[in-house]
Design brief:
This protein is α+β, with helices and mostly antiparallel strands and 289 residues long. The protein folds into two domains: 5-119, Roll (2,3-Dihydroxybiphenyl 1,2-Dioxygenase, domain 1), CATH 3.10.180.10; 140-283, 2,3-Dihydroxybiphenyl 1,2-Dioxygenase, domain 1 (Roll), CATH 3.10.180. It contains five helices and 18 strands. It has helices at residues 18-28, 71-83, 93-99, 154-164, 216-228; strands spanning 5-15, 32-36, 39-43, 51-55, 60-68, 89-90, 103-108, 114-119, 146-149, 168-177, 180-188, 196-198, 206-213, 233-239, 246-251, 257-262, 274-276, 282-283. Bound molecules: fe (ii) ion (FE2). The site of fe (ii) ion has 5 residues, from strand 9 and strand 13.
Length: 289
């Protein structure tokens, strides 16, 4: 497809307990934190900002920023959105400055999740060096990680994200869990196995966002720091069958989760979507086993 998003570039959140989030981001996750008026931002690769937080009652996602390679491609996407009847709004200079990008447009996905398309992310003048995770994070052109968003209709979402924004289906996970039918869709925008996933209605716009460490020991050390700082493990270590990533889920102070992963597969030439019949190859026991 000609015009498409290149990567998941940033996530913005409104959170009620700013200080708990600063502690989590700085001391547990090992990001570089910069405070600003009304909130703070985090970086963990060459991008000046990957996550931003402002104080407020929502405790939810307020922006999912998708980077587009060029202003021309952004214009192409805005035109395609208009053809599909999706309203877009040009972001203000104040909004662009807060996101540290040159230009953005905002829109809603079919479920109402707050999306933004942007160009020109600011790059940091200094290389990222983690105080805690010597191996650093897997990000850069693969984007910040992934986000799992609310959806009322998986097929409608798949059509929107693929046919309009230009992502591609990576795979699905579908199985029966007691009385529940689990049906998850994973989409990629670049080499990262998935940049966005969805699997049904949620109370918030987000179920979790996921980040990836380059070094397995850094994952273990991060879990140690979470234990020392009283951050609860939502789901202990396990390996997903589709991306093959070893992950742990932490509880965030805002009622959604953060998945920390290591390893896993990347998208290769000629990738064919498959459907898996379980959520984990091993582990991820949540106590209901
Ligand atoms: Fe995930």
């Amino acid at each position: 497809m000609s015009d498409s998003v290149a990567q998941l570039g940033y996530l913005g959140f409104e959170v009620s307990d700013l200080e708990a989030w600063v502690l989590l981001c700085e001391r547990v996750l090992g990001f570089e934190v910069a405070r600003n008026e009304g909130g703070f931002s985090c970086r963990y690769d060459s991008y000046a900002q990957r996550l931003f937080f402002s104080e407020g009652p929502a405790d939810d996602l307020i922006a999912v920023g998708w980077e587009v390679a060029s202003p021309e491609e952004l214009d192409g996407l805005v035109a395609r959105l208009a053809e599909q009847g999706v309203e877009t709004r040009a972001g203000s200079e104040v909004e662009a400055r807060a996101r540290r990008v040159t230009r953005l447009v905002s829109l809603r996905d079919p479920t109402g999740n707050p999306l933004e398309l942007f160009v020109g992310p600011e790059q940091s003048q200094t290389p990222f060096v983690s105080r805690y995770s010597a191996g650093g994070f897997v990000a850069e052109e693969q984007g910040l990680g992934h986000v799992v968003v609310n959806t009322r209709d998986n097929r409608e979402h798949e059509r929107f994200y693929c046919d309009v924004l230009g992502l591609n289906v990576t795979d699905h996970i579908e199985f029966e869990a007691g009385k529940h039918h689990i049906d998850l869709t994973f989409l990629h925008a670049n080499q990262r196995h998935h940049s966005v996933a969805f699997g049904g209605p949620l109370k918030k716009s987000i179920h979790h966002f996921g980040i990836q460490l380059a070094d397995f020991d850094d994952l273990g050390r991060l879990v140690d720091r979470a234990a020392r700082r009283g951050v609860k493990i939502a789901t202990p270590m396990g390996r997903h069958p589709n991306d093959k990533m070893v992950t742990v889920y932490l509880e965030s102070p805002s009622g959604f989760e953060i998945e920390i992963g290591w390893g896993g597969v990347t998208i290769t030439e000629g990738w064919e979507p498959t459907t898996y019949d379980r959520l984990s190859l091993w582990g991820h026991w949540s106590g209901q086993a």
